[in-house]
């Protein structure tokens, strides 16, 4: 089944403890992206990647890192999480940028930082 | 329509009626628009898309209308069903990425 898989689905952590949220897609998509979703603010892009070894900042990149060593994986790294990073996170992928293609989203990771 | 407030605008419709969800977009240069559906506890799911050289596109029970003059996008759902209850987002492309609206919650009552 074609899908975007995120792990974990739920995570509670403490301020300052490094964490990684994994994202993997099995559709051979070139484009991958991370969004966070907050009440009243909709989906805001954190980082995106047009292809392997190519990553760019989105609208809210502060406090996050990403890497794209392989086409299928695009992990989101929080080096020192803070409570304002408590949010619902979605990974998405697309065949090639936006162009004529929409995104396929993962099921989300709900992160709570205490 | 879209909202920047803390609460999503809500549309309540009776099962079997038609639903119309509206969206105003900001970028007149956008050439691609998408509607997504997000059910509780799930990621957004693609519903239908439309390019700027079209005014209307139809899918199964859904129709998207695009009015470029007033930068307005709408999603029409025919014969709304309980399974249509969700939050609906419009999105426009901007600089090779998607910009999402804040969403409209559709509630279907019997």
Explain what the structure shows:
The complex is a heterodimer of chains A (114) and B (110). Helix content of chain A is 0%, strand content 50%. Chain A has no helices and 11 strands. In chain A, strand 4 (31-38) and strand 5 (42-51) form a beta hairpin. By secondary structure, chain B is mainly beta. The chains are: A mainly beta (114), B mainly beta (110). The A-B interface holds A 4, 33, 35, 39-45, 48, 58, 90, 92, 97-100, 102-108 and B 3-8, 32, 34, 36, 41-46, 49, 51, 89, 91, 93, 96-98, 100-103.
Brief overview, please?
The complex is a heterodimer of chains A (114) and B (110). Chain A is 0% helix and 50% strand. Chain A has no helices and 11 strands.
Key attributes of the depicted protein:
heterodimer; A: 114 residues; mainly beta; seven-stranded mixed β-sheet; four-stranded antiparallel β-sheet; 11 strands; globular; B: 110 residues; six-stranded mixed β-sheet
């Amino acid at each position: 089944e074609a899908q975007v898989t995120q792990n974990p689905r739920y995570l509670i952590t403490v301020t300052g403890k490094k964490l990684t949220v994994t994202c993997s897609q099995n559709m051979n998509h070139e484009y991958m992206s991370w969004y966070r979703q907050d009440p009243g603010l909709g989906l805001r892009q954190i980082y995106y990647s047009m292809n392997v070894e190519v990553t760019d900042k989105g609208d809210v990149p502060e406090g996050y890192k990403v890497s794209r060593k392989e086409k299928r994986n695009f992990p989101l790294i929080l080096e020192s999480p803070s409570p304002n990073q408590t949010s619902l996170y979605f990974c998405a992928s697309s065949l090639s940028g936006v162009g004529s293609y929409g995104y396929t989203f993962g099921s989300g990771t709900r992160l709570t930082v205490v | 329509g879209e909202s920047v407030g803390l609460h999503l605008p809500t549309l309540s419709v009776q099962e079997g009626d038609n639903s119309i969800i509206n969206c105003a977009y900001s970028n007149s240069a956008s050439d691609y628009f998408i509607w997504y559906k997000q059910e509780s506890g799930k990621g957004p799911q693609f519903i239908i898309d439309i390019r700027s050289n079209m005014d209307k596109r139809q899918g199964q029970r859904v129709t998207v209308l695009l009015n470029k003059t007033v930068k307005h996008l709408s999603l029409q759902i025919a014969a709304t069903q309980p399974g249509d209850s969700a939050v609906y987002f419009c999105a426009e492309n901007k600089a090779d990425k998607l910009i999402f609206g804040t969403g409209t919650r559709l509630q279907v009552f019997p």
